[in-house]
């Protein structure tokens, strides 16, 4: 259970990082982004916070990790 919780927590963090990383890359690029890419970025940015709600909140997962590691 500890390993699965760790993977889930890391995956959630990665999913939530993607819109920010993409926005930073677009902002620093000398080439203009396509309207379709900007629409997709706007869409995914709205939903990124909900990614942590699938399969339990990150706090619950971290509690499971701490318990599995003997820290609780």
Report on the structure:
With 72 residues, the chain is mainly alpha-helical. The chain has one domain. Helices cover 71% and strands 0% of the residues. The protein contains three helices and no strands. The chain has helices at 2-28, 35-47, 58-68. α1 (2-28) crosses α3. The longest helix has 27 residues, at 2-28. The two termini are 15 Å apart. The mean pLDDT is 86.
Q: What are the key terms here?
A:
72 residues; mainly alpha; 3 helices; 71% helix; 0% strand
Short précis:
This protein is mainly α and 72 residues long.
Unreliably modeled segments: none
The value of Rg in angstroms is 16 Å
The whole-number mean of residue pLDDT values reads: 86
* End-to-end Cα distance: 15 Å
**Proportion of strand residues:** under 5%
Biggest β-sheet: count, sense, barrel? Answer: none
Strand segment tally = 0
Structural class: mainly alpha
Shape summary: elongated
Question: Helix count?
Answer: 3
Amount of helix:
over 70%
How do the SSEs run, as a string of H and E? HHH
Explain the layout of strands and helices.
Layout (H helix, E strand, L loop, with lengths): L1 H27 L6 H13 L10 H11 L4
Helix pairs in contact: 1-3
